[in-house]
Design brief:
8 helices, alpha/beta, single chain, 11 strands, TIM Barrel, about 210 residues, about 20% strand, about 40% helix
């Protein structure tokens, strides 16, 4: 959808010849689940992942962004206020995204170029605006629905049933997601059993066969 300079303005998954996938986490509130998720990633030696950071989290818990940076994981933006961008004009979108960008940069010294819009909400106008601002929108092709706390087995099944090369997996490291860290070890093991390897979203995009 919407190719620009050889790359799309939004990615759901990637056409790749390699057995790579992107494990991604949105963080919209709290820090306790985040710490548990990081512990699992460390324990399972997952070196590559992408975290989409909501700037209010960094304002309340600056250690979150610093820890993601220290661990060497990729940093993307999850915006500032968690509202649907399609319901607001371009001026509001720019204010929100730039505010988040500055907070993320001040916290991590990383200026993100990837964004996952709040609630995954966008339309062509929003995509065009974000692209104009230098951002690539990242959606997903495997939704864990972990934020709904549907049960550990449900989360595992939802991810592993969609597992294939090029998939972008959506999970959450927010405190509202109480089962993510419990499901994550089996998800990681299951993905590896399928011969899949973890890369960042940016690395996956660079593999795309256009």
């Amino acid at each position: 959808m919407n190719y620009k300079d050889g790359k799309k303005k939004v990615y759901y998954d990637i056409k790749t010849k390699k057995n790579n996938i992107a494990l991604t986490f949105d963080i919209g509130n709290g820090h306790q689940t985040f710490e548990k998720v990081l512990h699992v990633l460390e324990e399972k030696s997952v070196k590559k992942s992408t975290f989409f950071l909501s700037s209010p989290v960094l304002m309340s818990f600056p250690e979150v962004g610093k820890r993601v940076k220290e661990m060497g994981y990729e940093i993307g933006s999850h915006g500032h206020n968690h509202y649907n961008y399609t319901e607001y004009d371009n001026k509001w979108i720019e204010e929100q995204v730039r505010k988040a960008e500055e907070i993320i940069f001040n916290n991590t010294q990383v200026r993100p170029t990837l964004i996952r819009t709040p609630n995954g909400d966008f339309d062509y106008r929003v995509l065009d605006k974000l692209s104009e601002m230098g951002y690539t929108t990242i959606h997903w092709s495997a939704d864990s629905l972990d934020w709904m706390n549907p049960g550990v087995d449900v989360i595992i099944e939802r991810v592993l049933s969609k597992a294939r090369p090029g998939v972008i997996i959506l999970m959450h490291a927010s405190d509202t997601a109480q089962q993510t860290h419990k499901a994550l070890p089996n998800i990681i093991d299951g993905l590896r059993q399928k011969g899949l390897e973890f890369v960042t979203v940016s690395e996956l995009i660079n593999e795309e066969q256009i």
